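testing teh design pipeline on a random one, pls ignore if ur not involved
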């Protein structure tokens, strides 16, 4: 019985019927005692009988009191002691927490495979409880043989992954995988999936990022149906897709295939179904690109517009290529200049990344900036028409592309150029981010680490102080 129950029982009021019965019983007892006293009092031995009865009653009451006190202080039996030990002592826990203070904990993601038999999940939970681990969320993925259980755990900070895996193995788990988690994993799976579906519905370029966030650390590649030379690549999986343990092959609604690979952990049928649902959503909605734009005023007073671009801008992009010099195209594409036009349709596809276009007041396209998804990495690339170079347009594009990469939770971005392209190097240094340089045979790869330092603010006031530009957003 708990303290609360005892307190409620102690305060329980007596009903008036009980009081009436007790009063009637008292009067009845008095009447009976008076009758007995009168009968005994008229006999010769009456007083002695009354005294003997009183002594007997007193002795009986004393014996009853002694017996009750003796058994109330008796030691508990073995069964009672076992039950008391098994019951949680909340008072002791509270005192211990008050003395030690809040403990330091860490979040873990754990996945293990168990036999699909009654009691296996209970054994896992008991093993986690023995390590003082709290289960925050649990998902089960049924397989043909066994079940994959995925946990989000809050464990003591001192607990090591090896110790956790060892205890799970003793409880019947196999193929156990553990990874440190963060606060983002506390969002329940349905909420996270709905959020990713919303992002995918608003922008075609979000599909690869949504798949990466849905499936965790993985490599995602888009394979076009046709190569830049117009030949078929043979990348056309069936509509329902293909699951091969650590690799998914999904049909791209734009043609070709999307390949998702996670070498360290096989995909489950549930994860495959979720990924396929996102791709189906993208296919039903069709091509879509946000149409927001920024109007910028150059130092000399000319206005330009920065907006998202897609394959509808292919003709304007080809025309810009024709106005660019061979040196400008060579610095951008690092290969034969005559092949540059073949890659434009690929680069402008939202499936492979995001593209920003710069237009003049007359509608002429004068610059392109690409943010390209390259597996687990992200590439940035710029092309500015010769007559519009050295005006800060490249820096503006690069800053916005890096902002997009940061919003997409990319850890870094890299740019591939020639060592002689000082303008691109200056633009990367202008980001004020930690940079890594790699030079091989005249090719320079500059990597900016976004997770090492925050992206510097790019407010209109700061831009006006640095370059003399003014900015006005149009939605």
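output:
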């Amino acid at each position: 019985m708990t303290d609360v129950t005892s307190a409620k029982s102690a305060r329980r009021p007596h009903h008036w019927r009980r009081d009436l019965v007790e009063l009637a019983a008292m009067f009845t007892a008095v009447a009976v005692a008076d009758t007995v006293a009168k009968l005994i009092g008229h006999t010769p031995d009456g007083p002695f009988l009354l005294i003997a009865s009183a002594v007997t009653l007193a002795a009986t009451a004393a014996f009853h009191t002694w017996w009750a006190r003796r058994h109330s202080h008796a030691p508990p039996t073995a069964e009672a002691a076992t039950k008391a030990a098994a019951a949680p002592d909340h008072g002791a826990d509270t005192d211990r927490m008050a003395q030690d203070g809040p403990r330091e904990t860490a979040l873990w993601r754990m996945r293990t495979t168990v036999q699909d038999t009654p009691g296996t999940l209970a054994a896992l939970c008991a093993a986690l409880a023995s390590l003082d681990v709290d289960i925050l969320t649990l998902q089960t993925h049924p397989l043909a043989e066994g079940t994959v259980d995925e946990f989000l755990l809050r464990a003591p900070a001192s607990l090591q992954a090896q110790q956790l895996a060892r205890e799970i193995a003793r409880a019947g788990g196999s193929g156990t995988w553990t990874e440190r988690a963060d606060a983002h994993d506390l969002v329940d799976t349905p909420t996270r999936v709905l959020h990713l579906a919303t992002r995918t519905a608003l922008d075609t370029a979000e599909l690869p990022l949504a798949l990466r966030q849905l499936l965790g650390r993985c490599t995602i590649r888009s394979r076009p149906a046709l190569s830049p030379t117009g030949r078929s690549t043979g990348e056309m999986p069936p509509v329902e897709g293909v699951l091969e343990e650590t690799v998914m092959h999904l049909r791209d609604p734009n043609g070709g295939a999307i390949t998702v690979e996670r070498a360290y952990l096989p995909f489950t049928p549930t994860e495959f179904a979720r990924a396929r649902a996102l791709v189906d959503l993208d296919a039903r909605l069709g091509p879509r690109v946000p149409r927001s734009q920024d109007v910028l005023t150059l130092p000399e007073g000319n206005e330009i517009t920065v907006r998202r671009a897609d394959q509808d801008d292919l003709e304007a992009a080809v025309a810009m290529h024709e106005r660019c010099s061979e040196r400008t195209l060579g610095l951008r594409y690092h290969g034969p200049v005559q092949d540059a036009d073949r890659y434009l349709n690929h680069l402008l596809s939202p499936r492979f990344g995001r593209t920003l276009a710069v237009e003049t007041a007359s509608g002429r396209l004068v610059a392109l900036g690409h943010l390209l998804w390259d597996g687990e990495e992200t590439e940035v690339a710029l092309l500015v028409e010769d007559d519009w170079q050295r005006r800060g347009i490249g820096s503006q594009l690069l800053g916005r592309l890096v902002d997009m990469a940061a919003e997409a939770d990319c850890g870094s971005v890299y740019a591939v150029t020639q060592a002689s392209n000082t303008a691109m190097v200056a633009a990367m240094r202008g980001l004020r981010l930690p940079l890594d340089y790699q030079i091989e045979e005249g090719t320079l790869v500059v990597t900016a680490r976004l997770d090492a330092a925050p992206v510097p603010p790019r407010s209109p006031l700061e831009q006006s102080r640095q370059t003399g530009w003014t900015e006005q957003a149009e939605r």
